[in-house]
Design a protein that fits this description.
The protein is of the alpha+beta class. The protein has 4 domains: about 70 residues, no CATH class; about 110 residues, Tetrahydropterin Synthase, Chain A (2-Layer Sandwich), CATH 3.30.479.30; about 40 residues; about 35 residues, no CATH class. It contains 7 helices and 11 strands. The longest helix is centred in the last third of the chain and has 51 residues. The protein is elongated and about 155 Å long. The relative contact order is 0.07.
Length: about 290
């Protein structure tokens, strides 16, 4: 050995190692606590593993995974149903077919495809709501509203929702997102337009009511006509059946009926040669 360097006794070297090893052990423990090689993916999420910033296209499923600290990291991507609100300042203004401004507020329910989370992260990052959901919904609302008059927009919310579902589902599917539902919260038209539509609707309802009344009266008149005709026909039949012999027989039957009743005090007054009318005389109290 070079005589210019001091020699460390072996006993001192051993003591030095005994003092350094605990320190190294503490450093390693702190290192593993700060940069743990274990990563847990919770239920309802998948993980996108990045190695030195490059995404691995095989998603990590829920569970425990091992990564290389400081070289790899995991980005969590939710695969649960999520909601995105387009309300208030974030609502959508669009023009109807007749040139009126329509304000629409809605909520979108969606979820990403679990096996496409890495592709979504690579293409859009984690802010896919503002980069995918928002522009797709805005474009679809404007396209649908542009095909309808303001009166249709006011009255046919279900039609608007159906058309939006068809358009948005198709566009989101291209971007690895599944559409669950579009909930229309509110559709606002200019106040004067709403009043005009309501007035027109009331006028239409009144017209329909009058039509109903007229139809009812026509049916009632027809019923009375049929009833009158029926009565007239019945009278004709009855008149045709009232022969002289029948009337005499009926007269005799009435006499028998009165004679057998409690009040059997009657006067038979001759009437012509063939008929005798009956006059009842009530019993007088004694």
């Amino acid at each position: 050995m070079d005589k210019n360097f001091p020699q460390i006794p072996k006993s001192n070297m051993g003591n030095l190692l005994k003092g350094v090893l605990p320190v190294l052990l503490v450093i390693l423990i702190v290192f593993f606590l700060i940069a743990s090689p274990f990563k847990v993916i919770p239920s309802g999420f998948v993980g996108v593993k990045l190695t030195l910033g490059k995404a691995n296209m095989d998603e990590l499923s829920p569970g425990l995974h091992i990564i290389i600290p400081f070289m790899q990291e995991v980005v969590l991507m939710s695969v649960r149903t999520q909601s995105y609100d387009l309300r208030g300042a974030n609502s959508i203004n669009s023009l109807s077919k007749d040139g009126l401004t329509i304000n629409t507020e809605l909520t979108v329910l969606y979820k990403i495809k679990p096996d496409k989370a890495a592709e979504i992260f690579v293409e859009y990052g984690t802010d896919y709501e503002n980069k995918i959901i928002k522009p797709v919904i805005r474009a679809a609302v404007r396209d649908v509203i542009a095909t309808l008059d303001s009166s249709q927009v006011y009255q046919e919310r279900e039609l608007i929702q159906k058309r939006l579902m068809e358009r948005v589902a198709k566009e989101l599917d291209k971007r690895y997102i599944l559409l669950d539902e579009i909930l229309i919260r509110d559709i606002k038209l200019p106040k004067r337009v709403v009043e005009a539509i309501e007035q027109k609707r009331r006028a239409y309802e009144e017209m329909q009511k009058m039509k109903f009344v007229v139809e009812k009266e026509k049916l009632e008149a027809e019923r009375k006509r049929v009833e009158a005709k029926g009565i007239a026909d019945a009278n004709k039949i009855i008149a045709g059946s009232l022969t002289k012999e029948y009337l005499q027989w009926k007269f005799i039957e009435n006499i028998k009926s009165y004679a057998q009743g409690e009040n059997n005090t009657v006067i038979l007054i001759p009437y012509g040669k063939e008929m005798t009318p009956i006059i009842n005389i009530p019993n007088q109290k004694k």
